[in-house]
Amino acid sequence: MSTIGIIGAGAIGSAFAKALAGKGLEAIIANSRGPASLADLARELGPSITPGTREQAAAQDIVLVAVNWSKLPAALAGLPDFGGRIVIDANNPIEAPLFEPAELHGQTSSEAFADLVPGARVVKAFNHLPAHLISDDPQAEGGHRVLFFAGDDAHAKSAVSGLIERLGFFGIDLGSLEGGGRLVQIPGGPLPVLNLVKLG
């Protein structure tokens, strides 16, 4: 199993960590305030989730990034080239308190994000559901909750699809980072916040 890092310990990052912990999957979680600030969260989630530095989280095989849009450049600045490792973009170009869309100059948010993680194989995922639906039991209404993902690298998408399945969700591949990313982007995409369940 690939090792997992999480950069960002807000609602989505913490929910993803909780989902991993529920399956006994190990991860290193980091935020801007340092490992000591995450001790209580790690204690709550259990022994499989370890607080670490941003650099430690970024060094893992699969790295999920979930940070307020305006803080992404600072959160990712100065990290080494990702060297072909997988980075999951769980971000949306909008944030409290104003919830005004960021200026993307015609790009999707994932294309803008990819510029911040040189060398990474970016997969868009875990951004389109409220945090509690990521951390809650994905077996719902007699089926499995749907998680969409998109990316340009088939092997990276296969790895993320496998992780989605291990967490108990039903993954649906939306295609390319540009096309699929646009479908799940908040704001503007038609698919976010839809709590869909694959029956059977």
Automatic annotation (TrEMBL):
Domain (Pyrroline-5-carboxylate reductase catalytic N-terminal): residue spans on this chain: 3-93
Pfam family, one: F420_oxidored
InterPro entries, alphabetized: NAD(P)-bd_dom_sf, P5C_Rdtase_cat_N, STEAP_metalloreductase
Keywords, alphabetical: Oxidoreductase
GO molecular function, one term: oxidoreductase activity
Keyword Metal-binding listed: no
Official protein name in the record: NAD(P)-binding domain-containing protein
Species the sequence originates in: Paraburkholderia polaris
